[in-house]
């Protein structure tokens, strides 16, 4: 049986372009010559154009549900980049993306989501809420929430693997008294309700690593909010609680928290990179002013956003039915706060 990919291959265009041209999508911008070639190839292969017409019933539009408030998004470089990736790819593919729900700002019941072509969920939404969403729209892409068990498309950075890699580097460089400072996991539902747990990816990986390497006696684990203020408070508590046996290395869940950790360590006149080494996550622009420089894990937030839109479009155009999981690698950017003797490959 001739499929849409056969037409795309012979016409030398993408399956998405074939689908939208054959369904007379007015929002797609292709040359007349390309349009004519697609119809000619479809005819030569005896491809049944009419069997694709039902796609037109579904609006070529993507909804976004985010657990991040608009204000927080503006202050958080990671989520700002992720949103930019969503918008840029939607614009490139001529897909509308006007229905945006920020659960932290205006909790509301999700309605009429079946009118959308697909939905992208950014952040950790409760499993029950994912189930409720699937009842309205099967075309669901979940971003940054790998713990979801439902049959949905997922895109996320491989943070647990990188957490283990950094901890291995600490060990290889002689550090056993390793602490972790990070944030709680916050799962949200459609009404803005929050469930707060300690089961956050980096925190979970740290605890597993320490136990797997028989370092239980050195576990020093502090969680709070994902803010600079919380980072300073948690680091101050860590230093006060461990005066006689300070950790020699601290893994920090995010750069905003790390900004506060720097302040706390400097107040105690501890030399970062010598007395205590630090590694954080995000590699945001704000850390460029820190001295000594902060070793941080770079995450491709914009690429993650773009990938989520592409997965959504594949669902809208019925190019596949099986869910896909896309994991993005991360990179350790070495600076003075921790320069390992054994660098990561």
Automatic annotation (TrEMBL):
Annotated signal peptide: none
Keyword entries, A-Z: DNA-binding, Transcription, Transcription regulation
Xref: SUPFAM superfamilies: lambda repressor-like DNA-binding domains, Periplasmic binding protein-like I
GO MF annotation: an example: transcription cis-regulatory region binding
HTH lacI-type domain span: 2-61
Taxonomic superkingdom: Bacteria
Record PANTHER family: HTH-TYPE TRANSCRIPTIONAL REGULATOR EBGR, LACI-RELATED TRANSCRIPTIONAL REPRESSOR
Protein name in the entry: LacI family transcriptional regulator
High-level lineage: Bacteria, Bacillati, Bacillota, Bacilli, Lactobacillales
